[in-house]
Specification:
Heat Shock Protein 90; transmembrane helix; 11 helices; EC 2.7.13.3; single chain; about 400 residues; about 60% helix; 2 domains; alpha+beta; five-stranded mixed β-sheet
Length: about 400
């Protein structure tokens, strides 16, 4: 297939109908063949007719010198052949036809095709200057070669009307192509934005799940570590105590596996919203007594002071508060396993929910400390911020304190 190897940079950059293709498409082959047949065919037919003693379609130019008819035919034939490459040679071809327009009859259809092509592939300024130049050349042609039985104004008027009609038709095609291109770009942009939103939603969902995995599994596994450690360091404990600790280990492991299975189920790819199983209800402040009992069963002394009714706290605030307390208890088990932890929760609608977790600093480092990621407090701060609250932590005397405030609307 013919390639457009010599694209003019200025024409390519200024093409309002979009960049020219590197290769001819099937549509281009059909259009180019039709334009070539019209332009070159009219040139050949007009030249042969003018050379006849009694011309038919060109009879209004009877008496034209033979040398002028032959010259007009040869020069117009060159322009007709050049129509095959009119897209890449548009500017030189337009200038060449402008010179022929002063005296040529045989290049009329070729000139109209170039005007149309220019209106499609060039900016308005280029098209306007070219059309005005063609109209001026048409005025000279009407003065030099007025048709027999037709005056200057008739010849000039018909020529101008045809040029303007070709220009308007080309501008209409250009506007339609621009509109289609804008629709296509808008659809592609909307699709890209939708894909970006989907990707962002996936990242946010996975981040939320990772946070839940950290909070839940860290709590469960820390309990497992404490009970397993007790069994390891007290092999001579009574059988009932060993059986109770083993039962707690088994139950904690079972719950950890359930939590892990739920998280992995959500992370599976290709699972639609309709087929995704419903998530389990997230714990709120109502589950704090059970959380404290779990910690006490692991040997952690927890003092829970609830100064507000858990059921009156909004669900979002209650879930965030539960996770903050859960992670704080997990950290206390990791870094100060023998210390007593006090948890105080209070507040009222309109004033907010306040949380304070205190535990003495560890005097000795555990022989086998529970490993951690070191991101727990950072995650707590982010969780409180996402809930619209704030969280602070630090050492107060000989205690480590975590303080949080969460909004509680009326």
């Amino acid at each position: 297939m013919t390639e457009y190897r010599w694209l003019w940079p200025s024409a390519l950059a200024a093409d309002p109908a979009g960049p020219l293709s590197a290769r001819r498409s099937m549509r281009d082959w059909v259009v180019d063949t039709l334009c070539f047949l019209l332009g070159f065919g009219f040139t050949a037919a007009a030249t042969i007719d003018l050379l006849q003693p009694n011309p038919g379609m060109t009879q209004q130019w009877v008496g034209t010198p033979v040398w002028l008819v032959v010259a007009d035919g040869v020069l117009s034939a060159i322009a007709g052949i050049a129509l095959w490459w009119r897209r890449r040679l548009l500017t030189p071809l337009a200038f060449y036809l402008l010179l022929l327009a002063f005296f040529s009859v045989a290049s009329g259809i070729t000139l109209l095709i170039v005007v149309f092509t220019g209106a499609v592939h060039r900016r308005f300024r280029w098209v306007a200057m070219f059309v005005m130049a063609v109209v001026a050349a048409n005025a000279v042609f009407a003065y030099l070669r007025p048709g027999t039985g037709a005056g200057f104004w008739s010849t000039f008027g018909w020529g101008t009307v045809m040029v303007v009609m070709a220009c308007l038709w080309g501008m209409l095609v250009r506007a339609r192509r621009q509109l289609i291109n804008s629709w296509r770009e808008r659809a592609e942009r909307a699709e890209a934005e939708q894909q970006l939103r989907v990707a962002q939603a996936r990242v946010l969902e996975r981040t939320r799940i990772a946070r839940e995995m950290h909070d839940v599994l860290a709590h469960r596994i820390s309990l497992l570590s404490l009970h397993a450690g007790a069994l390891e360091f007290r092999p001579d404990a009574p059988a009932a105590e060993i059986a109770g600790a083993a039962a707690i280990v088994r139950e904690s492991a079972h719950q950890a596996l359930q939590d892990l299975r739920a998280v992995i189920g959500v992370l599976r790819e290709g699972q639609s919203e309709e087929n995704r199983p419903p998530e389990r209800p997230q714990p709120t402040l109502s589950a704090l007594p059970a959380l404290a009992d779990e910690s006490r069963s692991a040997g952690i002394r927890v003092r829970l002071n609830m100064a507000t009714e858990p059921d009156t706290v909004p669900l979002v605030t209650g879930r965030a508060a539960y996770r903050i307390i859960q992670e704080s208890l997990t950290n206390a088990r990791k870094h100060a396993p023998a210390a007593a932890v006090s948890v105080a929760v209070g507040g009222a609608p309109g004033k907010g929910l306040t949380i304070e977790i205190r535990n003495p600093l560890a005097v000795t480092v555990p022989a086998m400390p529970i490993p951690g990621t070191g991101m727990g407090l950072i995650g707590l701060t982010e969780r409180a911020s996402l809930a619209g609250g704030r969280l602070s932590h630090g050492i107060d005397g000989d205690e480590f304190v975590v303080t949080a405030w969460l909004p509680w609307t009326e």
